[in-house]
TrEMBL record:
InterPro entries: Integrase-like_N (IPR017856), TACO1_YebC-like_2nd/3rd_dom (IPR048300), TACO1_YebC_N (IPR049083), Transcrip_reg_TACO1-like (IPR002876), Transcrip_reg_TACO1-like_dom3 (IPR026564), YebC-like (IPR029072). This is Probable transcriptional regulatory protein A2968_02960. GO terms for cellular component: cytoplasm. Residues 84-239 form the TACO1/YebC-like second and third domain. SUPFAM superfamilies: YebC-like (SSF75625). Pfam families: TACO1_YebC_N, Transcrip_reg. It comes from Candidatus Gottesmanbacteria bacterium RIFCSPLOWO2_01_FULL_42_22. Residues 5-74 form the TACO1/YebC-like N-terminal domain. Belongs to the TACO1 family. It is found in: Cytoplasm.
Amino acid sequence: MSGHSKWSKVKHQKASTDAVKGKIFTKMANAIIMAVKQGGGTDPDSNFKLRLAIDRAKNANMPKDNIVRAIERAGKSGESESVSEIIYEAFGPAGIGILIKAVTDNKQRTVSEIKNILERGGGVLASQGAVSHLFQQVGLLEVEKNSRTFDEIFELVSQAGGIDMEEEEGIIMVYSTYADLHKVREFLEKHAFKILSAELYFRPDLQLNIEKTDLSEKIDKLLIILEDTEDIQRVYTNYKPNV
C-alpha cells in the first residue's frame, strides 16, 4: 500500500516557522479543546485524543503553561461548544485530492478563506464524499529505527497489531487501525521504541507521483498556505512529489 507522503517533510519543516509566528500555539490550543470535547474529559490518561493533542503540542514546543491553560479553558462550561471540527474536501492542481481538517468558531469565515486559498492556488472545494473515499482513516506512529533491522521491527509491529509499516530516512512509520492506535503505541513503548509522534491520520489508498516541475511547485505552495492558515489543523493529500 502507498502511505506516508514525502509531503510530511514539508509539514515538519514548517512547524518551526509557524511556532515563531505564534500561529502554531493557537492551532494546538484549539486541538486540545476539540480533544476534550470529542474524547470526553480533561484527563489525558482516560482521554486518548487529549493525550495525542498534548503530545503534538509538546512536539511543537508549546510551553507547558500554555498547554495547561488550554486544558483549563476546554474544561470550562460552554468553552468547547463555541468551536467545531470540520473536514473540507478539495481538488488541487493536477487533480490531487486534499482533505483539510479545520477547527473553527466561525464556519462562514473558515470556508470563505479556504475557498479563496484554493481558487488562488488552482484548486477547488469539492462536495462531501468526492475526495474522502480516496483515503482511509488510520492510526500513524513515527518511531526511531535505532539499531533494529526492518524485519525485527516488522515482527514487533505485527505482534502489536499494526497493519503496515514503512521506512524513510531512519524513521519507521507504523500504521494501525483507527481504534488500535493506543494499543499499538503502548506495545511499542514497552519494547523500548522512542515514539516521535502519534496521530489519527488520513492515509491515501493511492498516491499521485508528480515530477518536480512548475506544477509541483504550485502544489507545494498551495499546501503550505493551507497548512499556515490559523483555522486549519492538518492537511492530507494523495500528492507525492518525486524528489
